[in-house]
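# step 3/5: fold
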Amino acid sequence: MLADKCSYLYNETRDLEKEWPDNKSLDIVCHGHSIPCGYMAGNITMPFAAYPHILHQKLAERFPHSVINIIVTAKGGENSLEGSLRFKEDVLCHRPGIITLDYGRNDMFLEKTQIEYSWRQMIEYALKAKCKILLITPAPDCGSIYYETGTKKTDDEAIAEIIRELAEYYEVGLADVKMAFDLKFGAGHCRSEYLASVNHPNKTGHEIIAGCLMEWFPFICM
């Protein structure tokens, strides 16, 4: 069963609404590849245009009495298999309340079994540490081949399905970024509107990702 957006982060949201001296702090770790790092055109990093920073701004506006820390543990070029190997040391050391996982774009170079194994490992590590998790499906690329022929092993839809199934199995949060962009493209929008390079979103693209994450902090359910 999929986690419910109205209840999954209910306790965290209520804590964030408290005012001083009863206000709380929340640490969120954004783990993944180059996209949460803020890589843009020419591999220039622009972290303040990337979704972790945009999410931080949106949460700070929504919860003006809270103390929110966004910690980015992402690495450019990394896939989930590599990210899982350093998960305990680099992510859980921060004792976060919430963890976002974003490896879909680079996981196209892994086999399905490798993707499922590494995501399961990170999810189970997080749950054992009593962290809430928001899984992120792949953000779009340019739709053209920009990698060596034969190196791609799993397509975006298959990766997204693996992530969706894991979110349902473990009953954790799902930010279905791929679906959000597919709806945009289905309505006639061009990929170029949301991309800074062949495989990195621009600020507009990052705002959509942040919006998908913010859906887990809804007003209507409080």
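# step 4/5: annotate
The chain is about 40% helix and 10% strand.
# step 5/5: archive (pending)
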